[in-house]
Design goal:
five-stranded mixed β-sheet, elongated
């Protein structure tokens, strides 16, 4: 800022979140899949992406007449969002740069633990009006202490193998159209 102090919120550069839309035709569609997969992240590595990095944002299905099979079928569409975790080695400790789909919050509050009791954090004999950084044990963070961040897994996890999608779906090139008959 103009006084040479850092901005409170800092400069934030948003990272893009790639989205893949996968469509397929299916003879049957089980609506229970919506509860099982929608709004969930992959619990195990899936299609080359680490566990916890792929979110199934949406699944939709539309009953349609399919001329090529002479009957009804489902046009199913899946939306997947990708946010792999990124960490760097900081001389023996991994530092989380991007947490995948986990939420990372600074351990901070208006009160601290002192002798097992919660007490208002006081500065200049007045309670603080904005959260103050805390140690892992709930005590006020000292000037030479590193900040403590808490990681919360906010999305339920499920094994996406049950979707039955081809395991090389995201590594294949665009298929060539079949040759035309003469």
């Amino acid at each position: 800022n103009a006084a040479g102090e850092p901005y409170e919120s800092g400069v934030v550069i948003p990272l893009s979140t790639p989205i893949a839309v996968v469509s397929r035709l299916a003879r049957e569609f089980d609506e229970a899949w919506l509860d099982v997969y929608k709004g969930r992240i992959n619990s195990v590595p899936w299609m080359g992406f680490p566990a916890g990095s792929v979110l199934c944002k949406d699944i939709t299905a539309d009953l349609q007449w399919l001329d090529d099979v002479g009957g009804y079928g489902w046009a199913v569409e899946y939306q997947f969002a990708f946010k792999p975790p990124i960490s760097v080695d900081d001389g023996g400790d991994d530092v989380l740069i991007r947490p995948g789909w986990s939420a990372v919050l600074l351990n901070a509050g208006l009160r601290e633990k002192v002798g097992g009791q919660l007490k208002a954090i006081m500065v200049d004999n007045a309670p603080v009006s904005s959260p103050y950084a805390l140690k892992a044990d709930g005590a006020r963070l000292g000037p030479s202490d590193d900040p403590v961040y808490d990681v919360y897994d906010v999305y339920p996890e499920v094994d996406f193998a049950g979707l039955g999608l081809p395991t090389d779906l995201f590594s294949r090139g665009t298929p060539e159209p079949p040759p035309e008959e003469a």
